[in-house]
Amino acid sequence: MLRGRRKAKGLTQAGLGTMIPLSQAMIAGIELGKEVPSAEFGQLLDDAVCGDGELAAMWHHVRKGLHTQATYPVWSHAYLAAEAEATRIQHFANIVPGVT
Length: 100
Description:
The structure is a single chain. By secondary structure, the chain is an all-alpha fold. About 55% of the residues lie in helices and about 0% in strands. The chain contains 6 helices and no strands. The protein is globular. The termini are far apart. The model has no long low-confidence stretch (mean pLDDT about 80).
């Protein structure tokens, strides 16, 4: 749905990404269904492609469903809720030296 609206507006993924701002990779992920934008970015995307509220409403239902799916363990629901509201996610790794 996003891809069709984006193309109808004559926008590339990178061009749409600069309007929001989101990376081209994130726009591609959203179009492929691999990424789900936050409610704020969903509304911005909807506005940018003249989605008439349809896209924002769709993402609202998808995000709501993320927290109730049985595929996620109960202990992860708080993380999923925090992730839904995040504007940036950083990953850190600890390096623990081992005995060789």
